Amino acid sequence: MKTQMNPPDPTESKGKFRKAAEGLYQHESSGAYYARFRYKGERIMQRLGEKHHPCSSLPEAKRLLRDLKDRTERTDVVASKKTLHTIIREYKAVMSFGADTKKYKIQYLDELKDAFSSSKKVSEIKKTDILRFIASYDERLAPATINKVITLARDVFQYALDDKAIAVSPVDGIKYRKPRTTEKRLIPAWEEFASIVESIRAQKYADTSGESGDLIEFMGLAGLGQGECSGLTWADVNFQTGIITIIRKKTGFEFSIPIYSQVRTLLERMDKERGENRDPKGEVFKVKNPKKALEAACKRLELPIYTARSFRKMFITRCLELGIDPQTIAKWQGHRDGGTMVLKVYGSVSRKHQQNMAALLTAPTPAENKIPTETVAT
Fold this sequence. Notes:
By secondary structure, this protein is of the alpha+beta class. It has helices at about 60-75, 85-95, 100-115, 125-135, 145-160, 190-200, 210-220, 225-230, 260-275, 290-300, 310-320, 325-330, 340-345, 350-360, 365-370; strands at about 15-20, 25, 35-40, 40-45, 235-240, 245, 255-260. It folds into 3 domains: about 10-75, Double Stranded RNA Binding Domain (2-Layer Sandwich), CATH 3.30.160; about 80-160, DNA polymerase, domain 1, CATH 1.10.150; about 190-360, Orthogonal Bundle (hpI Integrase, Chain A).
């Protein structure tokens, strides 16, 4: 029995092949390489490379031949010929879900089937094909529903893996959509922030109450996030120049902030408490995540459960209320958009900032309202 996968193009059928290496043949006229070998009595002959970009390099052909043999050994020759339509039909037959769940799964299974031709082999489907299929839902489904479609696709191709129809699932590495947040933007008042820090430090029987209090106070006073604080060393703090060097964790971008007067007192006290240990590479904060201490303090004080990010928001909002320009705030935050995001996100949050801006719209005086008339010479 002979099997031919991806047979030579009709335009090449009259040409000749020459053996280039063990298991490799090159078409003389086009220069394209083909793999040719036997596996479990089946004859495999396949053009290497992409459909519109066949492989024409011998080193690359050898690598592709190794990959093909590896995939072939991990699949069943007969099963690998199955189309996606066949796999979906078989998967439907073994599904075991409740009526409602089964109903929506069948709907999306049919849509997955309709996205590919009936002759499309499951082994020919690539990750990019699945990405395009999932992207078709972006404008009409919520992220949570799209994630159900991704899970369903993952299950279908897992069935194909178990059936040895494919060696690698094209859904591998595709990430779930992040749900759109509907949470309100909670920003603590300055007085609430001070009460939280005081409450954390007052816990005498907590091993890290002092360290947690220092970290949270620094976050609020310096407007920095947990990621920036966790990597801060004493070498980054220059008391002489009054500068703190920061690496923004999200982007890896380096920026600096002044040692604000409200921060200097805290840092100088912490530096003094180091005693003889003056290692410049030493970390400023021993506590990496103050979440538990922060949640406990909010509950004790009967406040909303603020997060570490809330204090960055508080800092930015307070800066706007004090009249500090958005461009400067953006530099202190490591943003490179000139303050656009600061105004867009926090300008609408700060009630005091809105009131200050509204105060600029004073009513014009009668003299200012008067429209000058032209003097016509007679």
